[in-house]
Amino acid sequence: MVYGRLAASSLAARSLLRTLDYKPGVSLCYCTSADGSEAIPTLPKHSRVVICGGGITGSSIAYHLTAKGEHDVLVLEKDKLAGGGSSYSTGIVGQLKSNASETKMIQYSIELYKELSNRHGLKWWDSGALFLARTEHRLHKFERTHATAVHNGTNTELLTREQVLEKYPYIQSEDLAGALWIPEDIIVDARGMTRLLAKLSQQNGATFMEDCALQAVRTNKNNVVTSLLTSHGEVECDYFINAAGQWGRMVGKLSRPRIRVPIHSVEHYFMLAKLQQPLDANMPVIRDYDNHCYFRPWGDSVMAGAFEKTAKPIFHDGVPETFSCARDKITEDWDQLQFSLENVIRSIPSLTAATMDGVVTGTEPFSPDRHWILGQVPELHNYYLAAGFCGAGTAAAGGVGKRLAELILDEKRIMWHDPVDVKRFVGLHNNIKYLRERVQEVVGFEYGTGAARPDKHFKTSRALRVSPLYTRCFKAGAAFGEIVGYERPMFFHSNTPEEESPNMRETRYGKPHYFDIVKTEYISCRENVCLVDMSSFAKVEIRSDSAKDVTDFLQYVCANDIDRPTGTVIHSAMLNDRGGYENDCSLFRVEESRFMVVSPAPQQTRNLWWLREHLPAHSTVQISDITSMYTVLNVIGPKARELLGELTDISLKVTDFPHMFGKPLYVANAGDVIAMRLTHAGEDGFMLYIPSEYALHVYDTLMSVGKHYGVRNAGYYALKSLRTERFFAYWGSDLGADVTPLECGRDHWCKLSSDLDFIGRDALMKQRTEGIKRKFIMLTLTDHDEATDNFPWAGEPIFRNGRHVGNVTSSAYGYTLGCNVCLGFIRNYEDESGIVTFSYITDKNAKYEIAIGNRRFSAKIYAYPPKIEAANLGFYLPTMRVEPQG
Predict the structure, then answer these.
(1) Concatenated DSSP letters for 541-609?
(2) Torsion of CA 275, 281, 282, 288, to 10 degrees
(3) How far apart are the first and last CA of the chain?
(4) What is the pLDDT of residue 270?
(5) Cα 810 from Cα 804, distance rounded (Å)
(6) What local confidence, expressed as pLDDT, does residue 637 receive?
(7) What gap in Å lies between CA 246 and CA 365, rounded to an integer?
(8) Does residue 284 sit in helix, strand or coil?
(9) For the chain, what is the mean pLDDT?
């Protein structure tokens, strides 16, 4: 039936559709039971694994569990199988995501769906995908994606504007710069695949209960799920998996303690437009990022959808228990749809003359950072979560099912530190008001002409977690970035060199607009003294009435020897059984039986979970999160000792206050300040852990007295440049759960020569005997022009003698070295053993290169940090301007 035409004006289209016999919320599917029968199975008294959610994700988890031999699986579905998001899924399975973890899981989904479809007669489409670039910046982003994808097993091809038009002449080309072609992306029948996965699971012994609502998740005092109360009775379980889609947040509230499931639903629209003649018999999936829209073939029609710049949240008070995606229709919001219509027609102008077969208004749950949410939750030991797939549920489900099955059946297997781990969140992220505001931006965050920025931050739900110094830094011109919801200054506009204009252009992939500002702050850190607000650090107190109990516990979870005298600061890894980093932290022994553990901000939840997971039963050790108790001020630079020395009566000479040592002291009129002699950047200075009530007084006094020493504010970008030049590895980019201390040159911080046991020791001893298969190295670009060439931003391929051997994990500009500095890991593919030796790294005949987009730049390799002199840097240091503090 013809419902209307897509006029060039969305207002005209809206008027026309309203005057015709248009049925809002046309559904493209219906749902039945997995085997088509009406028989209702009996709820068992016990099931080893219970999954809440009978969509494609829950069905995939059940399939993979049973395929691996776990047949005692129960799936609870409050409605009908495939009646949630699967009921209106577009079926697009696109593998390129912004992180490797999600991409690899979707790549597995593609292979699984193709294999199962072919074996069981289910239809799928080998569509491929075309990503359009309408700006040079977007095109360069695709060039970088292509360079990385080629070496990560994804087949991609860059197309010129002319090549795109030759194949697809119906695409609007006035501003087209090029495209990225992904030939192996597919389209599947999401409903059919859900039913097939469920059927295969049932054949392997799984039980599916439809029309069975979960009412309560019962736990014991040990924070273990014991049983589930449903509308059909109670069932005991050993493991529980929340795969309830957009109902996942409500399911999280059914247990005590409640489980944080930070997702919020938004309305998502797509329409079917029919032309008298199809656009292309082999039309691919088309993603027009700069126009916020996407297309896929749908029979003899075209499906067109959009990821709006400002999305429309729905179900703010929770998804209604009785709501059914398949049955209940949501009235179209034409004011919201106007954006989609305009962009769809702008992208493919011939759709102006199309007839509309229908509009589907669906609801999709999004996470606050646009990444999926997977893994064991930190609140309960046997509760797992799979949620927040941000419109990619069908694409994700295959790989997610495999990952969750592995996590449950191999209890020693862990979630590697990646963007999908549920333990990346803190309490703030589960605030429903925060989520409602944030998801409006999240939906279209990667779209639009301004989105192709490597250092872009969300603008919504900001200034929530702030240190007491936030207002001071804001007044001083701080440009803030966000990490785990915490605001931290990245650089200060007040440090703009006098000859530079403070009206800076928008950042893309080239020289950052803040380049000279960061240089000014960097030089001040190296020649004078700077203050850096580092309060976002995660801080944990570990104490006991028994010094032996707390020492024994930390000796077991830490790789370094922590049994040092009171006042010592110990840098240590916390490793998993495979020797990989679960945490990279500093421990300060405050008293014999009391330690402060300081970790990077993203570790706040994960660190607490890891420590409590390994705490012996009936232990006297107490673990407390004290992150908000202290404001952390990094006083960094060669004049830091002189400045701080004016405000305290304790000697700060190196002989009296050595490096990696700490002690409580008075600063001006403030007491109970803990000072540690380290800066996390290789420069001299002190980390001040200030009770938050004294923070403003200490900061104001340091700024006032520091005028004589040229004191400045500095941000994290200057700190990043300093420590990158020093070859310091970063947690979360360089270090993670798959990286060992031997691979990153930190084995000297492991007590391998002692007889003390610790988690990961056996794996390290084995690796030390067998040799390492990859090594953390430093590279400097030798023929790169920072004024005109695009910068490395992490992820770039590393080549040795023309062969890809690794990727950049982090980078920054080194102002002393006068070039871009890259850190990363390399492998040895020239020797059958794969062992990376020192001679392999430093071979003078080896030629190293780094690919930035479609260009390769020569690089000099370092196995150890280069010597950086603290002499006159020869840079212009503008006259310092210190604003009075009020």
Answers:
(1) EEE-S-HHHHHHHHHHH-SS-----TTBEEEEEEE-TTS-EEEEEEEEEEETTEEEEEE-GGGHHHHHH
(2) -10
(3) 69
(4) 85
(5) 17
(6) 97
(7) 5
(8) coil
(9) 89
Under the phi-then-psi rule, with left for phi > 0, alpha for psi from -120 to 50, and beta for the rest, what region is 853?
left
> Of all residues in the chain, what percent are helix, strand and coil, respectively (each to 5)?
30, 25, 45
Q: Are 377 and 259 in contact (CB under 8 A)?
A: yes
Residues 535, 489: Cα–Cα separation, whole Å:
10
* Distance of alpha carbon 379 from alpha carbon 262, whole angstroms: 14
254: nearest Cα among 321, 328, 322: 321
CA distance 885 to 213: 59
Residue type, 501: S
Query: Which residue type does 60 have?
Result: S
pLDDT for the residue numbered 33: 46
Identify the weakest region by mean pLDDT among 350-354, 757-761, 799-803. 350-354
Q: Is 456 left (phi over 0), alpha (psi -120 to 50) or beta?
A: beta
Question: φ, ψ for residue 258 (rounded to 5)?
Answer: -65, 150
The 10s digit of each residue's pLDDT in 116-157 is 999 999 999 999 999 999 999 999 999 999 999 988 889 999
Which amino acid, residue 504? M
Distance CA 190, CA 591 (A): 59
Q: Count H helices, E strands: the chain?
A: 19, 38
The amino acid occupying position 83 is G
What residues does 225 pair with on adjacent strands?
219
Instruction: Supply the DSSP string of 748-765, one letter for each residue.
Output: GGS-TTSS---TTHHHHH
Query: Residue 615, class by beta-carbon neighbours within 10 Å (0-12 exposed, 13-18 middle, 19+ buried)?
Result: middle
Tell me which residue has tokens 């924070």: 223
How far is C-alpha 36 from the geometric centre of its chain's CA atoms?
40
Res. 715 pLDDT band, cuts 50 70 90: very high
Residue 414 has pLDDT above 90, yes or no: no
Collapse the DSSP code of 501 into the 3-class scheme (helix H, G, I; strand E, B; otherwise coil) and give the result: coil
Burial (CB < 10 A; 0-12, 13-18, 19+), residue 187, is: buried
Instruction: Give me 96's structure tokens.
Output: 């390129």
Place of tokens 């060669």: 638
Q: Is 803 exposed, middle or buried (0-12, 13-18, 19+ CB in 10 A)?
A: exposed
523 versus 86: the higher-pLDDT residue is 523
Question: Please, are residues 656 and 549 in contact by the beta-carbon 8 Å criterion?
Answer: no
Helix residue ranges per DSSP H, 46-178? 56-67, 100-120, 136-150, 161-167
Structure confidence by residue, pLDDT tens digits, 27-85: 333 334 445 555 568 999 999 999 999 999 999 999 999 999 999 999 999 999 887 77
Q: Which of 677, 638, 644, 673 is nearest to 660 (CA)?
A: 677
pLDDT at 23 over 50: no
Question: Residue 416 has what pLDDT?
Answer: 53
Tokens of 406: 């592995």
132, exposed or middle or buried, with CB in 10 Å at 0-12, 13-18, 19+?
buried
The whole-number pLDDT of residue 411 equals: 64
